[in-house]
Amino acid sequence: MSSVAVFGVSPGNVPVYHGSDLKVVDRKVRITELVLRCVIFGLGVLAAALVGFDVQVKEIFSIQKKAKFTDMKALVFLVIANVLVATYSLLQGLRCGVSMLRGSLLLNKPLAWVIFSGDQVMAYLTFAAVAAAGQSSVFAELGQPELQWMKICNMYGKFCTQVGEGIASSLVVSLSMVTLSCISAFNLFRLYGGNKGKSSGGW
Amino acid sequence: MSSVAVFGVSPGNVPVYHGSDLKVVDRKVRITELVLRCVIFGLGVLAAALVGFDVQVKEIFSIQKKAKFTDMKALVFLVIANVLVATYSLLQGLRCGVSMLRGSLLLNKPLAWVIFSGDQVMAYLTFAAVAAAGQSSVFAELGQPELQWMKICNMYGKFCTQVGEGIASSLVVSLSMVTLSCISAFNLFRLYGGNKGKSSGGW
């Protein structure tokens, strides 16, 4: 690997990494990526299960009413987004683990582009799902008196609490996906770093 | 600038940019950035104005009812997010324009980090605002019969149409911000590109 270190020396005003430092940074980035993908898989499955299997039955004047996640489209979107991101993270985590076992630390450009694009899509998808579900749960918790939309969480307390736990879990998933999308941007765009030098001080 | 070209030659298996190509790419990236920041500023102001000044008064049984954006918290969030992103884009656009006039094409690391972080925050902020407002407008347009939340757009048609135009404008803003955050990631992380070479084929 010493040849990589020699290629990595920069003649410009950008800090120079030595070979061993570079390997340590790469390994740390790789381990962080693997941990985050495992966290996303675990919490994505948990969030989908918490929301998807959440049911509460209430008897109101001898009529049985059932609250379930399909009553609100934002919750359906949240479950689908979590299942998608968990599956995606499982596949990416396997790729990441295999490449670590093989000892290869850098990506080639096409693969780096695929991973970067996938991570970006998943980060914005989960973020949008959490924002939409969060907005719906604010309506459910507080109502919207100006529009005569009444709060429903005083009727279905257990249901709402479990949905809240699912949304909290999804929030951690989406923040982890945001961090991962930064890591995959780093892994991709540093492959384009051949133009350091003179004009970097002018901005 | 020919010295930059010499520094930019890569000995690894990553495609080599020549000095003139590099300058052309940098200039194209810079112009795209400036155009996007102008688009975001214009459409951000438009979206905030469309939603913020949207009012419709209806007389129902001799009682005057007024629909305005403050009736729905998601629309208040959307207006604030658009004002923030428009102001941010104006400042960043000025910086971008000044640096183009000065002829400097590369960033230094601290500034690249500031721009990258700001762009990321703004991209996710506008995306969350659009998702939350979109979710609310689905409720307003279709209602949610399972929860006895009635649709309101059949009463306030003009109000809803104008809000819809504001959300569409915000969607373009958020997609432009996503593109910009990719550009600023490129501008930042290519400064770290000193480690191309041997192991990139193994993934």
UniProtKB/TrEMBL annotation, chains A, B:
Key words of the record: Cell membrane, Membrane, Transmembrane, Transmembrane helix
The record's section on InterPro entries has:
CASP/CASPL, CASP_dom
The main place the protein resides is membrane
Membrane topology qualifier: Multi-pass membrane protein
Q: Where is the Casparian strip membrane protein domain?
A: 27-174
Intracellular or extracellular location(s): Cell membrane
Pfam families xref list: CASP_dom
Gene Ontology cellular component annotations, sorted alphabetically: plasma membrane
Q: Which residues cross the membrane?
A: 34-53, 73-91, 111-133, 167-189
Q: How does it assemble?
A: Homodimer and heterodimers.
**Family according to the record:** Belongs to the Casparian strip membrane proteins (CASP) family.
Record-given protein name: CASP-like protein
User: Which classification does the entry list for the species?
Assistant: Eukaryota, Viridiplantae, Streptophyta, Embryophyta, Tracheophyta
